[in-house]
Amino acid sequence: MQDITIIEGASEESRMTKLTDRADLLLAAWFAANKEGV
User: Fold this and answer.
1) Using alpha carbons only, how large is the chain's radius of gyration in Å?
2) What is the DSSP letter of 38?
3) Which secondary structure element, helix H or strand E, spans residue 9, and what is its range?
4) Which of 28, 2, 9 is nearest to 20 (CA)?
5) pLDDT at 2
6) Rounded to whole angstroms, how far apart are CA atoms 20 and 25?
7) How far apart, in Å, are the Cα atoms of 1 and each of 4, 11, 14, 23?
8) If I label 1, which of 11, 19, 23, 27 is the partner at 20 to 30 A Cα–Cα?
9) pTM listed for this prediction
10) How does pLDDT run across 5-28, given as a tens digit for each residue?
11) Rounded to an integer, what distance in angstroms lies between the CA atom of residue 25 and that of residue 29?
């Protein structure tokens, strides 16, 4: 049972990491668009 909990925690952690990476990409794209606008 403990192994399953660890795997679930790891998958949830990687999911959060993917969301953070996506947010960073969106921020980078937003800044790039604003620089072009200026």
Assistant:
1) 17
2) -
3) helix 2-37
4) 28
5) 57
6) 9
7) 5, 16, 20, 34
8) 19
9) 0.51
10) 556 666 777 888 888 899 999 999
11) 6
